[in-house]
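User: Quick sanity check before I run a bigger batch. Here is a single chain. Can you write out its predicted 3D structure?
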Amino acid sequence: MASLTFLGAAGTVTGSKHLLDLGTHRVLVDCGLFQGLKELRMRNWEPFPFDAARIDAVVLTHAHLDHCGYLPRLVAQGFRGRIFCTPGTRDLCTIVLPDSAHLQEEEARHANKHGYSRHQPSLPLYTQADASRALSQLQPVGYERPVPVLPGVEVEFVNAGHLLGSAYARIHAGKRTLLFGGDLGRYSRPVLPDPLPIDHADILLLESTYGNRVHEPDDNGKRLASIVNRAVTRGGKLIIPSFAVGRVEEVIYWLRRLEEEKRIPVLPVYIDSPMAASALEFYKQRMQELDPDLNAGVRDVCAFCTARMTVVETAEQSKALTASRVPAIVIAASGMATGGRVLHHLAAALPDGTNTVLFVGYQAAGTRGRALCDGIRQVKMLGQLVPVMATVEQLDSMSAHADVDEIMRWLSGFSKAPAMTYLVHGEPAAASALADKIRADRSWPVHIARHLEQVELPLE
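Assistant: Done. Predicted structure follows.
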């Protein structure tokens, strides 16, 4: 009897890892970092619940850190197999994994220098050498091209519309089809294509990030224009913490469009994230994988730029931008304000009521972004308590995760119910609400996955 074990993204939205044990072979689907609450982040340091050397292959749905960021640790612990993914995912991993390793090493160095680690010496979760080895094991596979992963096991990637290269992983094992949903994209959004429909699967793993919420309706950029214009009236900066991979592109798209339609003034726009700049280049190189409407509208102009856009290259340039009081839009990582250059911009901007901070993505529990959106009046960052006097806004419409209505729309493409739908990648309230919705509307069997839970899978 085969089994499936939920090693992450069960009861939470991070740390995606699902172990498919076929008896003679083992496949790990996704290998992500836990993020957010300290109790979740500490799971990254726990011993593996399996022997990494006995994993035969990894199947990767996309290049966000909560899905791929633990790969270097897996490799460091002895995994030597191939990591199957799409070419777009391979491209983005070449920037996110080395960057994550660099941050791990910097954090360890900082802890050793200031002596605040309980471990002596403090060690990184993984190194840049580990990240390089993980990258060497990536095996890119095009969309909708079934390939053998192991004897009797075949994987096919289907475009999920969540991120460049993102996919559902359709795994054929025995006589059964298992669909690992990864993260589900959205409909009728710019930049990325709609998630492709799926006709059937015997077993379905479905994300539930927004299982209890409906995104703000599409207002053709009206609210973003209003936020920008109010920021201009105040005479301060607009700081946009953004995921470097997968969100900056849409922010730039909308700013450019609003400029062209003269709905906002042309402002200096700074991309203060080397990783985001690199990701933008990959998006430009893979325009054929993006939304067809985007391709049709930008044949002779820059797809991802504004009239006065500057990419901040060096740390010195970033410090100068932080110190500047000239009104501007600053887009910097990370999207949940958990680290990176955006912390310096926030520390300088938050105490000043003329400034505005705009969050444009999901804010996980335990992150500074969630605390700021919830109205906290002072926040700890860079070793100090920073008062919050700036205006804090959140724009939900740019989320790359399907909301409950979009999830139900996608499920309507199935010709029959899966034998079981397992809900993953969601906080408890969201997963519970989505489970109730699926049972009420579709009468499907649904189970909310629990961390470290193992379920049997009849594959014959």
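The first helix runs from residue 38 to 41.

User: Great, the batch can go ahead then.
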